[in-house]
Specification:
With 332 residues, the chain is of the alpha/beta class. Helices cover 43% and strands 17% of the residues. It is globular, with a radius of gyration of 19 Å. The termini are far apart.
Length: 332
């Protein structure tokens, strides 16, 4: 089975979630450690998928002086069926941050979330979990009224998660994968026609197999977290409307004060640019928008990703980490 490229060790666990630290061939630099947060829809090894020359995002961050950690959400079982949006975006991220702090000795951590993982990171920041130095939000939905094709899939008249949960407290990954495929029924045909036209290109074939393996490596999800994501975020747009409550507290994006790098794909059909760009209008701290040419997956692991998104994010994290340390020193 496909998995992480870089050797790693488990340093923390809670329920189905594990927290891993990547082996670092370089000396650990002075920069604040980075905690990678994947979406719960796909596997975490997307962050460690090698480029054509063997580089990975993990390696790029390590070369910039960061210790790199990742949340692996794992496979929920029936015993985990109670995990909801609050569990993932507040409780489990707090557990993961505690594990990183124990392992690294750092008091401040930089969160790097992909897609819904970025949404979880922003919720954690707005909730004001202690120890967050900054956030990188990669193709992250914020204003769910601009959800593009997913608005069709999550419309109340087309999807009743409550009915689905009666039979599946934990919803099988293949079922979710099929639902996503329904957004573009002809997509597979187009995709494999493109593959056949370039099947003699060994680099292309290798990358195609890597991405298709990751895409089809579907993850089971609890019905409760899907219910929260669909009803609260997609249908009610509660994150923007100030109607999202956790632990008796209303999550308001203006309460978030840490710097955010908002990385956006210009041709993203899953998270349209409008959805991500809304963050600057609501977030309480500084937000830097950076738009790259490409789609939802291409910006993260496409052929141009190492020289574009990876290098930009690594540099921003290093600069933000240094500024954070300067402010802490002055404060002391």
């Amino acid at each position: 089975m496909a998995g992480f490229t870089t050797k790693n060790n488990v340093i923390g666990k809670r329920g189905p979630m594990t927290v891993r630290v990547f082996d670092n061939p370089n000396e650990r630099g002075p920069q604040a450690p980075v905690l990678l947060i994947p979406s719960i829809i796909n596997r975490a090894y997307i962050f460690d998928m090698p480029s054509d020359n063997g580089e990975t995002l993990v390696g790029a961050l390590q070369s910039a002086g960061h210790s790199v950690y990742v949340i692996d959400w794992g496979e929920p079982r029936r015993l985990d069926a109670g995990l909801d949006l609050e569990s993932y975006s507040v409780k489990l991220i707090k557990v993961a941050m505690d594990a990183v702090q124990r392992d690294s000795g750092a008091t401040k951590i930089q969160l790097f979330g992909y897609c819904l993982g970025g949404t979880f990171a922003l919720i954690a920041g707005a909730y004001r979990l202690p120890g967050i130095a900054s956030i990188v939000a990669l193709t992250t939905p914020v204003d769910f009224s601009h959800a593009g094709e997913l608005n069709r899939l999550t419309a109340p008249e087309k999807l009743s998660v409550r009915d689905l949960m009666t039979g599946f407290p934990v919803i099988p990954g293949p079922m979710l994968w099929t639902a996503f495929q329904s957004l573009d029924p002809l997509g597979l045909t187009k995709k494999f026609r493109g593959f056949l036209s370039r099947c003699r290109d060994k680099k292309f074939v290798k990358r195609f197999v890597q991405l298709e393996t990751w895409l089809s490596d579907s993850v089971d999800m609890t019905g409760k977290v899907i219910l929260d994501i669909v009803e609260k975020l997609y249908q009610r747009n509660a994150l923007i409307n100030g109607q999202l409550r956790m632990r008796g507290k209303t999550i308001q994006l203006e309460q978030g004060s840490v710097p955010v790098l908002n990385l956006i794909a210009s041709k993203d059909h899953l998270v349209p640019a409008k959805s991500s760009l809304a963050l600057k209008d609501y977030w309480g701290g500084p937000v830097e928008d950076k738009i790259f040419h490409g789609g939802h997956l291409g910006i993260a692991v496409g052929s141009k990703a190492p020289e574009n998104m990876w290098s930009y994010a690594a540099e921003w994290l290093s600069q933000t980490s240094s500024k954070s340390q300067e402010r802490t020193t002055c404060h002391v």
